[in-house]
Structure formats: structure tokens, C-alpha cells
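Sample 3 of the quickstart, ligand magnesium ion:
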Amino acid sequence: MGVMSAVAPAERYRAISPAEFFYKYREIAGFSNPARALYQAVREFVENALDATDSHGILPNIKIIIEKADENREFYRVTVEDNGIGLPPHVVPEAFGRVLFSSKYILRQTRGMFGLGAKVAILYGQMTTGRPVEVITSQPNLRRIYYFKLRIDINKNEPIIIERGSWRKNRDWHGTIVSMTLEGDWSRAKQRIKDYILRTAVVTPYANIVFMTPDGEIYYYERVIDKLPRPPKEVKPHPYGVDLELMKRIRDSGSFSTVKEMLMKSFQGIGSVTALSLLEIAGISPDLSPKSLNDRQLLELVNAMKNYKRFRAPTSEALSPLGEEVIKAGLKRIYEPEFVEAVTRKPSAYQGHPFIVEVGIAFGGKVPLSNDKYPTLLRYANKIPLLYDEGSDVSTAVVKEDISWDQYLVKLPAPIIVLVHICSTKVPFKGVGKESIADVKEIRNEIKLAIQEVARRLRVYLSKKIKEEEKKKRVVSLAKYVPEIVRALTIILGDGQGGKAKLLEEKLVEIVSLRTGLPKDEVYKVVRSVEIGV
Amino acid sequence: MAISSVDKYARQRSLEILRKKFASIAKRILEGKKPVLIMPKRVLSNTIYDMKKKLLLLGPEMKRRSLLDVNEARKFMQTLLMASIIYEALVNDEYPTIRDLYYRGKHTISYRDISGKMHHENTWDEQRESDAVIRDIEVFLGVLREEMLILSKEKGKVVGNLIIKSGDDVIDLSKMGHGAYAIEPTPDLIEFKDIDAEFVLVVEKDAVFQQLHRYGFWKKYKAILITSAGQPDRATRRFVRRLSEELKLPIYILTDADPYGWYIYSVFKIGSITLSYESERLATPDAKFIGVSMTDIFGEEEAAKNINKLTSIFGKEIKDAISKPRKKAYLSEKERRNYIIKAKKKDVERAVELVGYDVADKLISNPEIKKYIRQKKLGVSGYPWFRTPEWIKEISIFFSKLAKLEIEAMASKGLKFLADTYIPTKIETGDWID
Ligand SMILES: Nc1ncnc2c1ncn2[C@@H]1O[C@H](COP(=O)(O)OP(=O)(O)OP(=O)(O)O)[C@@H](O)[C@H]1O
Ligand SMILES: [Mg+2]
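Result:
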């Protein structure tokens, strides 16, 4: 064993900005290679556009344009336009130029939640092409339209405004147009992007979506329903979700004069009676000022709240389920199925987070054939389509393991799609990729119940259809013999009555049609198709 | 071709019935009524043993074969198809065999289902199917296929002092050389001209028929000698029936001593289940089973032992079936050892079907067979015409010995023995089952 060197090389310490962090570790946010980056950029801007519209009661008109931006290099300009609420001009630089800046850090179901998406896309564009982002925006109550050209200062995590301007609105426009350039790989990303937009279109039948590709294709998904999902409301946290840190922050906000008031105003489902009994359990006098509480007392309070059994379930007002009508309209718009049904379950909760499961099933029509193990799955979380990691998703487990499809008369492979939407103020994603949902017992059970409910309706439809088909088969099994019978009878009746053949056939068709309830022309079709061999 | 006048008449009559029956079907259709064929049910459950007439007859149950019943539609089509082929054959003065009819009617029907997919279906696949349709038409029309001049393979043969007229030819059945006259498929068209015989002997086995023929048995004993060559066909049965009915000759039937032989006898005497609708014309109620009987092989002593075991089923009267003094066996112990064949499981099953499970269970001592029969045939009740004291006596020996014997064995003992001792003794002493 040697002697340890006394002079170890000195460690160098420094802090980095969030911008620098995500610049370095952009693959965490999905920007790992040019193909993936192009797909991710489209997603981020489309989801921002939808958040700015449907969450605020506006029927979305969304336009997505991807175009080649350089003749020699694989640069693509991505432009996403919406008719949403827009941004106040003074916020624009930070919303698009400061990582971890967001309007969505509240308890309300939106697609966005981190304050990252737009910025990482812009950072990626900046580092691969050097080109700035352009934002045009106006809010409904403003009289001007504002224009910004921005870049992000990576070290400082600050916007750099390169150009700004504004002009008068001469028509009643509001919304946002974001345009940025990045290095991408269209040919490898194309299928994913098209899939993503198609799947988005499935759950937004209330939106007009236009998508123009670098290949000159135009996809247009026209609005088929004027009904929007109920917009989410901001809510206070549920006491089950509380922890010491949250409690400290509430205490330190200094906005309450008594502990009792603090509890009643900061949480949902705590009235004066509940507040008093919680404080009694924690051994804290209700009239104390929150500021006088030490950390130990706060912890007592947190424990009392966590162990309290009589809270109401968390409110679901923050949630924005699609609704049965929207799901059905969406599935119809894309797949023109012969059967479509949907169900929105009642709100439920896991670990203090409210959630709602919705399921739609489409069968037949243009629905593609599934694999032979389980139906084609369309997974959504907070209205965002989940495209990858299907194998590890809780919905996959349910359709594969918890539901026996033949019990619902579905013989796989079949033209069947099962749409599962989970909305929650906190969707339990498996990883940062936001692509699959963890197997949470409460959620799994709700998915199962929802699928069973819709599948039961499917079974009713299919069993009717099978009966109808059996009826048709029955007709075929009778009608196919008519010509032979007519031939035999005319032979026996002799030449003199040969002219009766037509009449006999007509009458037999009539009798068969009358007795089986199938229209005469269907019976005739079979009779006419018959050829008698020799 | 000169068509005999009898043929012509039969043809005319069949045509008329056929035309009339099917015209009424056509009429129903034109009136918009359900197309149905109503005919007697040809199944075991609708077969009745008439105790008084001693015949198997078709019961009163009718079936409605409707085109609108998915399970019957194909049969409906087949019936009409077959009727039209028979009709054409009749009109064209033809004599189709049942195999001809099968081929004439066999073709494919091609059709498209609702989804437009093409399917091909044969009007019938096997001759079994078309044969069944012919039987349906017979019961539907009440006309036998012979009367519709439908032929089948000739199987039965006859020799003896008998002169017949067949078609327009007169044939002397004593002048057939080593051969014999093949009983034609339409025996009703035969005319009996002259006869010099005292009884009819029908042998199951063609080989034994030939031996007796060459031996001159029929000449020596003034017999009409007939063979059915196994299960008798309709022509042979009808021919035998006419000999009995019209010429008043006693009929003796000689079969193997096994369940198949017994059943052949019963088909001659009372009819068969599949053709019960014809029993009235085909069965010969006076036919007698002359042998080879089990008591001829083992002696009556063996039967007496068995009968005691059966009093619980049949009462004490059954003992009267045993004659006193008791008949001795025709075969010695040594001969038995040489000629007897061990019964197969299939034979035992067949015997149980004839006489019933209860009898078999009382008599079979071999534990393996007993168990086997219990598994397969428990509760089988047997045919009433075999549950008579005489037959129970016979079959009881079969169960207790589990042995059978072919007629050839009797001939092996010596053709002379069979022809000059066995058969004449049996007839003279009236040792038969009626
Ligand atoms: N099209 C738009 N219309 C209106 N506001 C927008 C639009 N795009 C972005 N914003 C605002 O900019 C903020 C930052 O957007 P960004 O995509 O970076 O983060 P986010 O959407 O809040 O969260 P996430 O990282 O999950 O996407 C949003 O919170 C929103 O307030
Ligand atoms: Mg976002």
C-alpha cells in the first residue's frame, strides 16, 4: 500500500443557471437528436397553443408549419399559430427567454406544467442554428399587436431582446405566433410528428388544425363540434398532499392572522369545525399567529392532517376532462367507426390528487386492425397523446391483463381502438419523458371499470350485429337452393307449364323474404348469384 | 328395345303419383304458402313392432321438411332434385340404378354470400346421402323404388324347380347349370309359371348355397334354394315373400349361429328399421329359423342351466321353453372344440342390443366382458321380437359360452351331414324357431 498523496487536485466549485443546465442536459427534456428535437419542438408549441385556447374557453384554430429553412443544411423553421389568449407584452421576453418561468405553476390541469418546454426548444434552435425566436402576440383586450425577436443568455438565464415592435390591430385578432429554427431530421421524425398531430386531433374535435409539412403536404382536421371541455379552475391543495415545506411556505407568507384562518384559507375541504379538531389533535391553540409556530409544531400539524380520516375527497374542479361527447366526436372525425361510445368516470383520488379516467371505444369503419393480443390503444394524459413506452403503461396492462376481450365478443385482431384519457393535477408519469403512466392501484382500477363499462355497450352492439349477420347467413342458406328447386319443379310440372319458372322463383323469393324478415332484393341478390353446375 | 307391358304400367302409375304430389307443392308456393314436404318419419323412434301382425311397421309420426328451416333446406332441395331426376328417368323409359341417380344429381351449386364471397356446394357428396333421399321419396309418394323402376345391384340368387316369366322371357330355374338366377331388382314384375317344390331354403352364405347346389340338394329334397349373400337386399326379401304368400311354400332360413345371423333372420321375417315402411310388402311372417341354433351346437342341457337364472326377469313360464326329453347336441365335444369361434366384443354388444342388457348381465360370467358391456350397454332394453322364450334360450347359450359358429362348420363336418342329416332332420322334427 502506497502513501496517500497529500496534495489532492483541488475541486472547482461554481453554480450554473437553469438555462445552462437544460442546455447541457437537453435530452432530459426530449431534445436528444435532430429527429427527436424536431418532434419535441412541434409538441411544445402545439401544447402551448392548445393551453392558450381550450383551457380558456376558446375554440382553437391552430396552424402548424414546418418548412426547410436552409438549402444546404437540415435546418427547419417551425411556426405554430393559435387564436388563444396571447401574452401581455411585458411577459413575452421572460416567457420565452427564461427557463423555469411559467403561468402554469398552479393547481389546475394544463398540458404544460414545468415552465421549460418553449425555452428548451429555443435553446436547442439557438445552439444548432444560431437563429433567434420570433413571437407575435396580442391579447383580446389589447389594441396592438406585439412583435419580439429574442435569444436566451445561457449563463444568466435571461432573455436578450434583439428586436421588438408593435402595430395597431385593425381586425379583432388575438393569439400567438411563435416561429423558430432548429436543426432537425424531417425524414426520420415525419412519422412521429404526423402520428402526434393525428392523435391530438382525435381528442380535439372542437379544434381546426392545419398542418403543412416540408414535403408540401397539407393536413386539415376540421372542427366537428362546438363544445369545449369544461375549463379547469385553480384550486387550493388538498390536506392529504401537504408536507412540512409547503406548510413552512404558507406560514412564511404572513398573510394570515390565526392558525385557524391559515388552515381554512390555504386548503380545500377545511372548514372551521375541521380546523379546530385538527389543531386540537396537533395540540395547537387556534388563535395563535402562524408566525409563532415553530417547525416542530408545524410537523405535528402536518401529521395530524395526514392521519385525519374524515376529509372530503379532493375536488375535481381543477380537472378538465374531455367529456363523452368530445371523445365520441373526436373518434368519429378520424375513424368514421360503425360503433363509438365513451364514458367519463366520476372523479377519484390517489395520494390526495384528484383524477378522472375517460375511455372511448371505436369499432369498425376506418379503424385499423389491432394486433392479436389487445386492441389498439390511444393513451392520453391531460389531453396530451402518449406515443412511446406503450409496453410499460398502466393502460396497456389493463387492456392486456384485466379485460378478457372475447367476453365482449371482440375476436382479436379486430378493428378496435380503445382510447384512455387520464387527467389529474398530478399525472404519475413513469419518467421525465412523460410517455407512460405508472401502475397506481386506484388509477388502474378506474381504467378497468371505465373500459368494462364501454365494452359492455360494445358487446350489446356486437351481439346485435352477429344476430343480424346470422339472419343474413340464414337467408343465404335458404336462397341458394331456390334456383335448383325451381328447375326441379318445372321439370316435374312438364313442358306445358315451363313458363311458371319465373313466377315460382318470384314467389319463393317472396316467401323466403317474408319469413326471414330480410328485404327481397337481398334474397334476389343471392338467388341471382347462383350457378348450377353439371 | 321391347319394353314389357308390366314395366309400362308401373311407369305410368309412378309418374302420375309423382306429378300430382309435386304439382301440389308448386301450387302451395304459387299461393305464397310455406314450401313443406310432409312425410312419415323414418327413424327408430317411429318404428313400431306390431305384435299381432308380427311386423316392424312405420309409426304414425310425420315430419315436415320445410325449405324455410335452415336445417332442412338442403334436404328439401335434394328431395326435389331427386324427384326431378326420377321423373325424367321414368319419362325416358330408363332403368337407373341408385348409383346412376347419385351421379345424375351430383353437381355443384355456386353462389355468393351477402358479402359477395363465392361458395361452392355439392348437391350431395356421398351416395349414402342420395340413397337416403330416395327412401324419403318412397315414403313421401308411397311408391316403392322398384315401382319407379329404379334398380340396384343384384345380390340374391335362386335355383330350383320353378319356371318364371321375367320381362317377356320364360326362364326355368332348374336349368341354370352350376350358376343360378340372379333375383332381379324388380321382383314384382316376375310371374310364377310353374312350380314343383315343397319348401324354400334360404342360406345366408353364398358359399354354402353353392355347395348345396352342386350337391344337388334342391333336386333331392324338392326345394327352392336361395341365398341372400349376407344382409338380404329388398329384391331377395320381396321374392321370398312372394314364394311364401303366393305359392304357400314353407320358408326355412339357415344362418350363422351369431347375432348377425339372427338379425338377418329377423329382417326376413319381420322387416328392418331403415325400411320399416316396406315391411308389409317385404317381410315374410311365416319364415322359420332352422339353424344353426345354439342348442344344436351345445345341446339343450346348457340352455336349461341358463334359464334358471332368468326366472327373476321372465317368471317360471320361461322354463316351458325347454323340451323334455332334452335335445342332444349335433356336435361332439371334440368337434365343438374345432369349430367354435370365440365371440368378439362387437358380437356380444350386438347380442345385447337384440335381447337386452338384463339378460346379458345375468348370464355373462367373464368379468372383463361383463364390465365392458355394463359400460357400453347398460339399460339397453332389447327388441321385443327377440325377447321370446325360444330366442332367450338360444341367446342365453351365446352369453354363457361367449361362442359363435359359422354354417361352414356344419359343412366341414361333412357336406353330406349338412345336406342329408342336419337340414332334413331339423325340418322333419319341426326343430325350428318360428
Ligand atoms: N401560445 C401561447 N399563448 C399564450 N401563452 C403562452 C403561449 N406559449 C407560451 N405561453 C406562456 O409561456 C409560458 C412558458 O411556456 P413553456 O412552454 O416554456 O412552459 P409551460 O408551458 O408553462 O410548461 P412546460 O414546460 O410543461 O411546457 C407558459 O406558461 C404560458 O404562460
Ligand atoms: Mg409548454
